């Protein structure tokens, strides 16, 4: 731990500098435009210090415990399957199903990193408070994480098969637009917020490593284009799964509401 | 004080639940699939403890500092009743948090190199740094514009549907015209603008605003600012790539 303290100080400094512009804007407007004293100023400042300190420790811990192994793993699994794909005689043809372990890794690591994503926790907490408990934070986080898992896996399959990035994304966006027209309107803003939230501190480093590792082992793939594409996939699918989850609950609700006792309750809920 | 310690201890233990999936995945692949031992296990364990402590502090800080700050500022702006100041604030916040974002500075540099390789700009230092700075300010302005538009939408109570559908249609259309080198960077620019501290603050701001304006529903009107902030940079960067 001798080198531990300077490292913590470094990371703390970095995080503090990151949020400095935000603090300047907030307190500048508070002092010059609103000209009101913040209620509970002391508590708020302590809270902000906790946020900076917490984020710094979180990042150091990830960098020390999980990121190095995760990155090596992502790189190895890309080449691992490659080695087992009969390269010895030089006539190896890459089949998309040669990479099963990699897809499994992509799905599980996409899910797991999203569950640990702090900004998603924040959005889920707010959604619970605002909806009076109707939005279950765990349900929301699991729906988002499932979306990331699907997105990263399909993104990896796309890199292996070489389907063009912009066509695949446009197909996805097309589906998203149709779904937006059909989904219950209360979920739409939340669903689209989760798309932005998933590409954050924990998910991006590991998913980017996966994309880069895969793109550099498969001939004809560009690490720049394909690595980026994976992240775009990871933020597209959560919107689809969150809206899908809401559509499914609404459908189940309608079905049970057709029983006489529940009709009034359902109607009441629709009005609010 | 003592009760505070107990609840914080519970918070730390609670983070274990958030981290279990990631620990399981890494352990499974390391031991079962790759069949390798863990390198410096004690380092990993110390790191995990730091992650748990950090996450618990972060969550505590959200409830104590960031959420109340965003909400009380939104309420103060609503009380003040000046739409012009509110929109100025929204723009300044979006621009301010983005322009200094390290991830954005890194991406702008990469983008300049990519644009040079594609033959779009000259390779001397001045041209590269001009392109990178232009891109950085484009993204910062786009996030400012996104928050401005998003806040205006909350005030007016317009449904988000049409903005989102219009936005993604626009992205799809421009993508087919933009130079391919910029496309990946444009999509990534949407992701880097929503940092871990910005997200909770902006969410609290939107929700606070929607709950202090009569006739707005915090769930339907309050969320959506992050969606704007990740969609708008894509559009702006794609257009920037076509112009320069």
Low-pLDDT stretches of chain B are none
What general outline of chain B do the C-alpha atoms trace? flat
Determine the strand fraction of chain A and express it as a percent band: under 5%
Please state the CA-atom Rg of chain A, rounded to the nearest Å. Answer: 23 Å
**Percent in strands of chain B:** under 5%
What would the keywords be for this entry?
heterodimer, A: 272 residues, mainly alpha, 80% helix, 0% strand, globular, B: 244 residues, 10 helices, 84% helix, flat
How would you portray this structure in words?
The complex is a heterodimer of chains A (272) and B (244). Chain A has 272 residues and is mostly helical. Helices cover 80% and strands 0% of the residues of chain A. Chain A has eleven helices and no strands. The N and C termini of chain A lie far apart (55 Å). About 3% of the residues of chain A have low confidence. Chain B has 244 residues and is an all-alpha fold. In chain B, 84% of the residues lie in helices and 0% in strands. Chain B is flat. The model of chain B has no long low-confidence stretch (mean pLDDT 87). Chains A and B meet through helix 1, helix 2, helix 3, helix 4 and helix 5 of A and helix 1, helix 2, helix 3, helix 4 and helix 6 of B.
Kindly summarize this structure in a few lines.
The complex is a heterodimer of chains A (272) and B (244). By secondary structure, chain A is mostly helical.
Please render the helix and strand layout as text:
The complex is a heterodimer of chains A (272) and B (244).
Chain A: H1 4-34, H2 41-65, H3 67-83, H4 100-115, H5 118-130, H6 137-161, H7 165-182, H8 188-197, H9 203-217, H10 223-257, H11 260-271
Helix pairs in contact in A: 1-2, 3-4, 3-9, 4-6, 4-9, 5-6, 5-8, 6-9, 6-10, 7-10, 8-10, 9-10, 10-11
Chain B: H1 2-33, H2 41-80, H3 83-99, H4 102-117, H5 125-156, H6 160-175, H7 180-192, H8 198-212, H9 218-222, H10 225-243
Helix pairs in contact in B: 1-2, 2-8, 3-5, 4-5, 4-7, 5-10, 6-10, 7-10
